[in-house]
Amino acid sequence: MSCYDRRDLGLLLLRLGTGGVLAAHGAQKLFGWFGGHGLEGTGQFMESVGYAPGRASATAAGLAEAGGGALLALGLATPAAGAAAAGAMAGASAVHAPSGFFAQEGGYEHAASLGLAATGLAIAGPGRLSLDHALGHVFDRGWMVPLALGVTAAATAVVIGARNQRVRAKVEGEQEVLFEEFEE
What we know:
The protein is mainly α. It is built from seven helices and no strands. 74% of the residues lie in helices and 0% in strands.
């Protein structure tokens, strides 16, 4: 029987903390738990910030956060779990970026921290105190890391790009209306 080292304990704590926070945020979106708004309210919010359709976007974000977070906490399918959570946090960061970095000003600090931690876990692996280790790393192969992160990065870029186009179009439309009202 081997002794667990500091790295295994550190990864366990990082997985439990990061995964737990992500899972709770996902449960807010999906089920309305922990003071969340559920799919209906979150869908309306998602639509208001440019993610359309709102309910589908809320479902995708909720599943990525709740599912990715739970899997990270368990240390199961760590590359895919970390990539999914990181993609969701990139989407959240895009919404908060106009408010700057710090969360106290509505910035992207919290989302970026969770996304980076999830990415780091996807790359580093879950450690020996994990289901991936117990199952012989069937869902945690080296080739899965770049594949999961690459696919997620591509999908996230498309989703955020489409969202940014919708936001720009909305702002330009509002500016056009204001300009027309000014001319009258």
